[in-house]
Amino acid sequence: MEARYNLRGHRVPVTVIKAEPNVVVDIKGDHAVLGLGARKKVKKPQNDFVNKVGVAPRFVREVKTDGQVKIGDKITVAIFANQDAVKITGITKGHGFTGGVKRWGFHGGPKTHGQSDRHRAPGSIGQGTTPGRVYKGKHMAGHQGNEKITVTGLEVIEVNPAENMLVIKGAVPGFRNGYLMIEKTGKVKKYVAPPEEKPKEDEEEKLETKGSEEPKEPEEPKEEKKEEKQTKEVSK
User: Fold this and answer.
1) 3-state class of 125 per DSSP?
2) Which three-class secondary structure string do you get for 48-75?
3) More confident residue, 236 or 24
């Protein structure tokens, strides 16, 4: 992960994703089959893709489209823009078999009073005769990670079509060089600048007094004004 500045001028953590162009390898009604990467060894079931687009993709996924694509088209990161809201699906990191403390955040048992092997023990897992069983979904030790999840509410910070780079705000599921599905869901709420503060009455009075202190042009003598009035009356 890195840190970048968004359009609002805030420093945010980001994840840089290299998104190679996806090739449309097949169309099924209102759905398109997208392929990513290329297989080194092609088997017979993938020969159909080779005949259509000339390559057997490594990953194949079916997505819904508006019917404006055709076989052989390439879909790049140019379909995204800054401040787009996206959701990303991926496979989380696998942690193997873990205990209750690491997997679920259990606090463990007491550390004193003769407790020698209860520090990370799960403790009781149910009641007595009633109900006489362990409830389904009970948090216990087991396999952690390596499961498919979707993170929503992510924001696109930067798009670089020349290098097929996509900069996303926040963390995404999975490990480095992992496989992700990025889907646009809308636009992030745009930044609205706060309204300008109006000067208070005291400040307005100060501004007026400052303006009155400025030097004024010298006034003409009153006698000349009277002469002007007399000339005007004569002209009438």
Assistant:
1) coil
2) HHHHHHCCCCCEEEEEECCCCCCCCCEE
3) 24
